[in-house]
Design goal:
Shape: globular
Largest sheet: 5 strands, parallel
Structural class: alpha/beta
Number of strands: 5
Low-confidence stretches: none
Distance between the termini: 27 Å
Radius of gyration: 15 Å
Helix content: 40-55%
Number of helices: 5
Length: 157
């Protein structure tokens, strides 16, 4: 199985980018992981929030196939602790799917088309984080999930 993370806009902070790359490298020992960054849409000043979400949604959908399982990282999504999340990953791996995609939306969230296409929603916290921080937090949780599945000492129970 491949796990893919799709996000809108690049990570500007060099320290955050270095940490993201570190966890991506660590993840490669467990699973095939891809981080797909969709460039920010240009000339957004002339677009409404809805139009911006629509354009971002079209770009996100262009990166998916019908057989992919698409999970939105959404503030209203189901929240779980790290151990439960590791079981969630294991369930998806056992299901035989080829690609599991997690998506971080743009500044205004997701379009209706993306919500309609999604197979589920996952919430990281009730708190709000910057889109750049969420990338690091989520990739770290993926790594943590795999260390839990392998009974490695990274996660203390």
């Amino acid at each position: 199985m491949t796990i893919k993370l799709i996000a809108i806009g690049k990570t500007d902070n060099k320290q955050l980018q270095a940490l993201i790359e570190d966890y991506q490298k660590r993840l490669s020992h467990y699973i095939r992981f891809e981080f797909d960054i969709i460039p920010d849409i240009k000339n957004v000043k002339h677009l409404s929030e809805a139009q911006q979400k629509e354009k971002e949604g079209e770009l996100i959908l262009s990166k998916t196939q019908k057989s992919d399982v698409l999970i939105l990282l959404d503030e209203h999504g189901k929240q779980m602790d790290s151990v439960v999340f590791s079981g969630y990953l294991q369930k998806h791996m056992n299901s035989g799917i080829k690609t599991l995609i997690f998506v971080i939306g743009g500044p205004y969230g997701f379009s209706e088309a993306i919500y309609n296409r999604a197979n589920g929603k996952l919430g990281l916290s009730k708190m709000t984080f910057s889109h750049q921080m969420v990338r690091l937090f989520f990739i770290e949780q993926l790594y943590r999930g795999f260390t839990i599945l392998r009974n490695e000492p990274y996660h203390h129970r």
